[in-house]
Amino acid sequence: MGKIKENIIIAELIAKEISNNLTKAELVRLNKWRSNSKNLNLYNEILAQKDFELRNNIQNSTNLDYEWKRFYQYTDRNNNIKFKRRIITSKFMKYAAVIIPILFVSIFFVVKNNFAPKEQKIAISSIAPGENRAVLVLSNGKSIKLSSKNKFDIKESNGVNLSNSSRELTYVKSKKLSSKETIYNTININKGGEYQLILSDGTKVWMNSMSSLKYPINFDQDKRVVELKGEAYFEVSKDTTKPFIVKTNYYDVKVLGTSFNISSYSDNDVAYTTLVTGKVEISGIKSKGNIKLKNNKLILVPGEQAVYSEGKQPELSKRKVDVSKYTAWKDGRFIFEDERLEDIMKQVERWYDVNVFYMNDDLKDIEFRGNINRYKDFNTLLKKIEMLNVVEFKIKGNTVTVIKK
């Protein structure tokens, strides 16, 4: 119990530091705690997460009450320890109320090891995180494997130059094209891969695992159209004369110059478009059976997300979100906010190139929250989930089986 109380105090000191309420004596105590390298790493991990957690509804007392209640329910359920619930009366406590739930995936994983050490049942595995790799298909059908090590410069049939270096494929439009014919390339990202490319108009694209983008190597005179399957983040080069259109399995996204994320995987019945900057229009809904939707067009402003769900009655709607949760993957993070285990493990399958099976279907609905470096070893992620004492994982080859504890 002493360790848990100590961690609560540290959480409050960090909250005070964030809100500029830390006294000299408290700073000394916090610095002493940070002098330990493990604690310093944990501190940096918390700071990396705080912007995501604190950005939404920090002044909403209802949400803060909920966060405190969930925290104490968690300690009681997992450690059989009860604390007197504290009344939130100051600004720093409002920060602490949101920081402490973050500790479910940081401090409290450490606490559980201290209080209830258990033999780790995850087998040592050679499963590595994803890396920069893709396959480029040229207009003549030739396939080229892309990686950080495979550097090259080639010229397409119409004179457009493309080069691959480090982790990025770049297209450079030549001043004189040998042909006005629209020529397409396709970049395919398999399981365990990611890649970046710069299109000939300067648009930057980050491609996630199990995704594909078909695009003209040189855009025509009146529009810029690409076709996406899977997930990608776009920073569109502004051109008021040529709208940029992304066609997906479910709908089209039209922009002029903006940054946004699209997740439109064929194995999901929900597609998301999340707007970071600018403005986009969602239209051209491709519902099954040509069912008419109540809304068949949406305009998004920054901080909004379009959600299209398939089903007996397809629906297109929008909502306010913290965009960092949906764009974190391109910055090397997994951010889960009360997400179902099945939805989390779908991301894990794509990124680590594994297959996941469940011994019981009800395990799929367990919710989990966390902020994890997605370049970490595969076992690191699974161990953090196991520490919730709800499920455990068995690994054989690249097959992961989820078992109820």
What does this structure look like?
This protein folds into three domains: 2-115, no CATH class; 131-325, Jelly Rolls (Sandwich); 332-404, Phage tail protein beta-alpha-beta fold (3-Layer(bab) Sandwich), CATH 3.55.50. It is 28% helix and 33% strand. The chain has helices at 2-18, 24-34, 37-54, 61-79, 91-102, 107-115, 323-327, 341-352, 378-386; strands at residues 131-137, 143-147, 152-155, 161-165, 168-172, 184-189, 193-198, 204-207, 211-216, 224-235, 244-247, 252-255, 259-264, 270-277, 280-283, 298-300, 304-309, 315-320, 333-340, 355-358, 367-373, 391-396, 399-404. It has a six-stranded mixed barrel. It has a three-stranded mixed β-sheet with strand order 20-23-22, with helices on one face. A two-stranded antiparallel sheet has the order 19-21. Strand 7 and strand 8 form a beta hairpin. Helix 1 (2-18) crosses helix 5, helix 3 (37-54) crosses helix 5 and helix 4 (61-79) packs across helix 5 (91-102). The radius of gyration is 24 Å and the shape is globular. The model is unreliable at 50-90 and 102-124 (pLDDT under 50).
